[in-house]
């Protein structure tokens, strides 16, 4: 019964793509305390609603079309075939997770959830045949199986599965171990409605419930495990694994979305050179594997991918199309100590122009990762287009609006310094982990156009546009700390995925 908890754990990921509230926020990889707290909130608040976006049915009550518990071992005093059809399972909304393990970046690792609950009740039609101790039992009717004060451990395993250039978790095995404090059974219409026999059998089952459950526990756990495997497998098949966690859900400043594209280029430093032994034929032609210190080769690889694959992406490398890049949501929050004190949000916007970007320097890679890696690139023009909303003040003037925006950055130079450390994992398995990132962004000019400022009041809108465009540099400079911080978060999350998954020995000729 507790297997549904694994599916409900995945409710924490709904904020990645669905319009789920920002409070509670999604969790980071492996943050058991965060996952535990979030899921307990969601059990209580969301169990009564289905979630088609996550392939989740309504959880409380949960409809179970059919489940068969077969206990047929000859040495067991309990030998029954118990079939439940069109049953409802109650109590999920009141269960609580007390410990979480796993949910890290390694898709093959075990994920484990420990849960306690006061009451679980499975109610609905049943059919039973067999024997309990030396007593035959048969019947078909309505049943109620209730577990009280139950502790459960759920574990599941999986493997990476690539679909459409993204990596999903293919859940292959799920196990449940339940230990209730007490169990209560009620089966109506036992022995074809013979009341005396039926009443006596129900009394016997409940008086010996602990011994009977002990004999049937493995069969019950196995049957529920098989049922919930399908639910959990369906949820994980909905979204790429990396998009289910907080590092993939960053609140960006609008210039930071430019940084996201630049980060994609940093990623290409590895991806563009991944001609792994034995798999070179799977990569697009023209992409070569570089020596780790061959700066010219690395720079050429970045520029080759920009020119040839920015619009289409590279499925083999998991690279999505970069021009245009569709960004679901990003924002910059208020800074009361800045003359630019605004809440500025964008959603469903496109970033155009990266295909014309040129990497000017890629340096610092060494086999021992002792130096900071430097990436310098220039982009002639980057344009952000899409819906926006803004509220706050610029200098001493209030600003408010909601509509479509177009923001252009001319001749933008980006410089990123990235520090890695070596992580050894066995012979010839050296990985890189990001420990620090600093970013500088310098456009030659920025222009802003925000439709429907001040609810369409033309005079106010024109005056505000004149102010922000005449003072574009001062305004941009006020945003630089937020830009650097946002880019650091994005860069670390993406680079850790690549360099944490593929060893340097595969990425480069070292």
Output the keywords.
single chain; 9 helices; disordered N terminus; Bactericidal permeability-increasing protein, domain 1; elongated; 510 residues; alpha+beta; 7-stranded antiparallel β-sheet; 2 domains
Describe the structure in your own words.
- This protein has 510 residues and is α+β, with helices and mostly antiparallel strands.
- The chain folds into two domains: 4-240, Bactericidal permeability-increasing protein, domain 1 (Super Roll), CATH 3.15.10.30; 250-507, TULIP domain (Bactericidal permeability-increasing protein, domain 1, Super Roll).
- The protein has nine helices and 13 strands.
- The strands form two sheets. Strands 7, 8, 9, 10, 11, 12 and 13 form a seven-stranded antiparallel β-sheet that branches. Strands 1, 2, 3, 4, 5 and 6 form a six-stranded antiparallel β-sheet that branches.
- The longest helix has 30 residues, at 472-501.
Secondary-structure map:
Blueprint: H1 4-9, H2 32-46, E1 62-71, E2 78-90, E3 96-101, E4 111-132, E5 135-163, E6 166-187, H3 195-207, H4 209-236, H5 254-271, H6 295-309, E7 325-332, E8 340-352, E9 358-363, E10 373-394, E11 397-424, E12 430-442, E13 445-450, H7 458-470, H8 472-501, H9 504-507
Antiparallel strand pairs: 1-2, 2-4, 3-4, 4-5, 5-6, 7-8, 8-10, 9-10, 10-11, 11-12, 11-13
Helix pairs in contact: 5-6, 5-8
- Could you say which overall geometry the principal axes of the C-alpha atoms support? elongated
Structural class: alpha+beta
- The CATH superfamily of the largest domain appears as TULIP domain
Specify the CATH architecture of the largest domain: Super Roll
Broad CATH class of the largest domain: Alpha Beta
- The CATH topology of the largest domain corresponds to Bactericidal permeability-increasing protein, domain 1
Report the average pLDDT across residues. Answer: 76
Helical amount: 25-40%
Quaternary structure state of the chains depicted: single chain
Biggest sheet statistics: 7 strands, antiparallel
**How many individual β-strands?**
13
Helix/strand order, N-terminal first: HHEEEEEEHHHHEEEEEEEHHH
Low-confidence stretches: 1-24, 247-283
